[in-house]
Specification:
This protein is mostly helical and 82 residues long. The longest helix has 18 residues. The protein is globular.
Length: 82
């Protein structure tokens, strides 16, 4: 857990814009992304509790999740992305 926190601090400047994009997305896109976030948490057997910790752990450790997130926003037509 300390390793994840250290990586979060070092990569904070990368994580915050992506997380803000999720928060500012339309309800439809946001709901899909959040459902997938918890699905990946379950599949990856992660122990994090807060949504940001789950998000940052997946963003930092899973390139598959990063690609899926980008696909979700691009599929939204661009207007839903930041």
């Amino acid at each position: 857990m300390k390793k994840l926190r250290f990586l979060q601090i070092l990569n904070f400047w990368r994580l915050i814009p992506a997380y803000i994009c999720i928060c500012m997305a339309s309800e439809e896109v946001k709901n899909v992304v959040i459902e997938e976030l918890y699905h990946w948490k379950k599949c990856d057997k992660r122990n994090e509790v807060s949504r940001f910790d789950i998000f940052s752990g997946l963003m930092l450790e899973r390139k598959e999740y990063r690609s899926l997130l980008q696909y979700r926003f691009n599929r939204g037509g661009g207007q839903n992305f930041c």
